[in-house]
Specification:
Length: 116
């Protein structure tokens, strides 16, 4: 049996009115490409749920800061210092749960040089 997750597992992590199915499919695709069968299925299923939650948060950003008065709101995944999986707490948790380090390694920027 391969690692998998369910809409209920994703909704236990992140509250959303969006259908989690497309986010689970995206998470499964990323997981298969980067991690494959390197983790036990139970651990992989946790990583998948957190990856799907990350994709939900990107599509439906969470409010992370709020001010009243002059008004000031910040949303996770928008204007964050991190990019990719680092941009949400859900992506960060997925990287933490991935003990292979493959998700974290895929987030590292690679230097590119161009000779003119």
């Amino acid at each position: 049996m391969a690692a998998s997750t369910t809409p209920e597992a994703v909704q236990a992590i992140i509250e959303t009115e969006l259908d989690p199915a497309p986010f689970i499919a995206a998470a499964q695709s990323l997981y298969d490409a980067r991690i494959g069968s390197a983790l036990p299925d139970s651990q992989g299923s946790q990583v998948l749920a957190w990856l799907a939650a990350h994709f939900v948060a990107v599509a439906d950003p969470r409010e992370t800061q709020e001010s009243v008065g002059t008004g000031s709101w910040s949303f996770e995944g928008k204007n964050q210092s991190g990019e990719g999986l680092k941009s949400t707490q859900y992506g960060q948790m997925a990287m933490t749960l991935d003990t292979t380090g493959k998700l974290r390694d895929s987030e590292k920027r690679k230097a590119r040089f161009q000779v003119l």
